[in-house]
Task: inverse folding
C-alpha cells in the first residue's frame, strides 16, 4: 500500500467526521480546498508548542520525521533504547500513526503523550490518541497511560519561556479506553471506504461543522438557495429540523412552525424583501450618542507562545487602532491611527498614543464593545497608571453592534448576522471586498508576518498600507452606518 493511501490519525479523525470527506481526501484530493491562513497558523502554533514540549524530556531522542521510511526505520531501532522518543512512526498493515512523545515506563511499557496548542482537552483529541494507542498495540507495544499536553493559559511569561509552566499534562487514559471500544471495526470500515471506487453519498448535517469546519462544505452545501434556513440567527437546531422536512428556504417555513422573535423577523424580511426597521428603538440608541463622537477600532494578535514579558498564551496584544473623530453633526471627520512597528511590545506606545488623541468628553463608538473594553482593561492591568483613565473611557463606550444584534434594523442580505462586515455593505453599499486585508484574523496574521520579519521591505510596506486601509474602513464605516441610521429615523 502506498503511503498516501494509508489510514493516518488525521484521516481517522476525518473518517469519524464523515466518510465522504475521508474518501474525497484520499481519492480526489484536488477537490479539497487548501487550508485557510488561520488553519495554517494553527498548525504552525502546534509545531512551536511541540518544540517546547520536547524540552521537558532532556534525554529524549528526536526521530527525523521528514522522510517517511527513515522515520519508520529509526523508530524500530530506537524503541530498544527505552528513552523518551519524539515523532515516533508506527505502521501496521494499512494503518500508520505518528506519536508526538512516547515515554518508557517500568520495564517494558510506554506512555503516549500527545501535544496540542489548544488550552483544553477536546473529545476529538481523545479519539486522536485512541487511534495512536490502537496502532501502538497492534505493533506490539504495551501502553500503560495516555496524556494530553496542552497550553496553560494562566502561565505568565517572565524572561525565557519555561516549558514546565507553559504546558500542562492531563491524564486521559480512561477516556481513551472508552474511545478505543469498537475501533477495529471503525478502522476496517474506513479502510474499505478508502478502497471503494464510489464516493459515499452523505447528506449534509451537524457533522459538517464538528469537530472542525469541513473543507468540502462549500461543495456539499452548494445546492441550498442563496439565503437558506441555515442562515437562521443563533443555533442551527431549528434549521436542521426544517431541512429534514425538506424545507430549505425561509419562505417555505410553515406558519405553525415555532420561531423566536428574531427568526420571525428574518422570515418576514425574506418574504417581503424589505428591511425591518424599529425607528423608535434606533432613535433611542442614537440619542445616547454625545458629540464629539470618537469612532474607535482595535486590531490585536495572539499566539500560543507569549512573546512579551507579563503576557499569557493567547492574550490579545493590541498593535493597531483607527480613530475617526466627528466634532458635531455633519462635520468632517478627523482621522488618527496607530500601527506598531513590529519590533517589540507595542502596548505601552499603543495606550499612550490612544490617550493623546481620545478627548475627555463625548461618546466612544465601537462595534462589539466586549472586545475593545477587554483590551483596555488588560492594558490597565499592565499599566496601572492608566487604570482611572481606562475606567472613564470604558464608561463612555457605546456599542454600535447593539441595534443590529437586537434586530432593531435587519435586512435579509445580512443573512442572520449583525457583524459590521454584513451590515456596512447592506446599509451603505460599501464592502470590504476590494481590500487585500478584509478581516480581523487576516489583519492579525499579516502583523505577525511583520513581527517575524519574513517578508521583504517592499512586502512589509504593502502589509502596513493594507492594515491602515482595513482598520480605517472599520471606523469610517461606523460613521456611515450612524449617518444612515439617522437618515432612516428622519424619514
Ligand atoms: S461537508 Fe459535510 S457532508 Fe460534505 S464531506 Fe464534509 S462533512 Fe461530509
Result:
Amino acid at each position: 500500500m502506498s503511503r498516501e493511501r494509508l489510514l493516518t490519525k488525521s484521516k481517522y479523525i476525518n473518517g469519524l467526521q464523515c466518510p465522504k470527506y475521508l474518501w474525497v481526501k484520499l481519492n480526489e484530493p484536488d477537490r479539497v480546498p487548501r487550508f485557510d491562513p488561520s488553519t495554517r497558523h494553527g498548525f504552525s502554533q502546534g509545531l512551536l508548542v511541540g518544540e517546547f514540549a520536547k524540552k521537558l524530556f532532556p534525554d529524549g531522542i528526536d526521530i527525523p520525521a521528514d522522510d517517511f521510511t527513515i522515520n519508520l526505520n529509526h523508530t524500530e531501532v530506537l524503541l530498544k533504547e527505552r528513552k523518551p522518543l519524539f515523532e515516533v512512526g508506527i505502521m501496521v498493515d494499512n494503518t500508520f500513526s505518528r506519536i508526538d512523545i512516547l515515554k518508557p515506563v517500568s520495564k517494558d511499557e510506554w506512555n503516549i503523550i500527545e501535544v496540542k496548542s489548544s488550552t483544553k482537552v477536546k473529545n476529538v483529541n481523545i479519539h486522536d490518541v485512541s487511534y495512536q494507542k490502537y496502532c501502538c498495540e497492534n505493533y506490539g507495544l504495551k501502553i500503560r497511560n495516555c496524556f494530553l499536553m496542552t497550553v496553560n493559559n494562566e502561565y505568565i511569561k517572565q524572561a525565557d519561556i519555561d516549558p514546565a509552566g507553559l504546558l500542562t499534562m492531563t491524564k486521559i487514559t480512561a477516556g481513551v479506553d472508552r474511545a478505543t471500544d469498537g475501533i477495529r471495526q471503525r478502522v476496517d470500515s474506513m479502510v474499505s471506504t478508502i478502497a471503494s471506487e464510489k464516493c459515499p453519498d452523505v447528506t449534509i448535517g451537524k457533522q459538517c461543522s464538528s469537530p472542525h469546519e469541513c473543507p468540502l462544505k462549500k461543495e456539499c452545501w452548494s445546492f441550498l438557495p442563496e439565503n437558506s434556513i441555515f442562515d437562521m440567527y443563533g443555533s442551527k437546531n431549528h434549521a436542521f429540523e426544517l431541512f429534514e422536512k425538506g424545507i430549505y428556504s425561509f419562505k417555505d417555513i410553515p406558519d405553525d412552525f415555532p420561531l423566536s422573535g428574531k427568526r420571525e423577523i428574518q422570515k418576514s424580511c425574506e418574504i417581503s424583501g424589505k428591511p425591518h426597521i424599529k425607528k423608535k428603538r434606533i432613535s433611542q440608541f442614537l440619542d445616547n450618542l454625545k458629540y464629539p463622537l470618537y469612532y474607535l477600532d482595535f486590531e490585536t494578535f495572539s499566539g500560543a507562545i507569549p512573546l512579551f514579558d507579563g503576557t499569557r498564551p493567547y492574550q490579545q496584544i493590541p498593535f493597531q487602532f483607527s480613530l475617526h473623530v466627528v466634532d458635531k453633526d455633519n462635520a468632517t471627520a478627523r482621522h488618527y491611527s496607530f500601527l506598531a512597528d513590529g519590533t517589540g511590545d507595542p502596548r505601552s506606545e499603543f495606550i499612550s498614543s490612544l490617550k493623546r488623541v481620545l478627548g475627555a468628553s463625548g461618546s466612544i463608538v465601537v462595534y462589539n464593545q466586549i472586545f475593545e473594553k477587554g483590551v483596555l482593561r488588560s492594558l490597565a492591568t499592565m499599566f496601572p497608571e492608566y487604570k482611572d483613565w481606562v475606567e472613564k473611557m470604558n464608561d463612555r463606550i457605546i456599542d454600535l453592534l447593539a441595534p443590529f444584534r437586537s434586530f432593531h434594523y435587519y435586512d435579509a442580505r445580512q443573512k442572520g448576522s449583525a457583524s459590521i462586515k454584513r451590515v456596512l455593505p447592506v446599509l451603505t453599499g460599501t464592502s470590504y471586498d476590494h481590500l487585500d486585508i478584509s478581516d480581523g484574523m487576516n489583519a492579525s496574521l499579516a502583523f505577525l508576518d511583520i513581527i517575524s520579519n519574513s517578508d521583504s521591505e517592499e512586502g512589509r510596506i504593502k502589509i502596513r498600507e493594507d492594515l491602515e486601509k482595513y482598520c480605517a474602513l472599520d471606523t469610517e464605516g461606523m460613521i456611515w452606518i450612524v449617518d444612515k441610521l439617522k437618515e432612516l429615523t428622519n424619514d
Remarks:
- The first strand starts at residue 61 and ends at 62.
- The mean pLDDT is 94.
- The first helix runs from residue 9 to 17.
- The pocket of iron/sulfur cluster is lined by residues 17-18, 20-21, 202, 204, 207-208, 214, 216-217, 220 (CB under 6 Å).
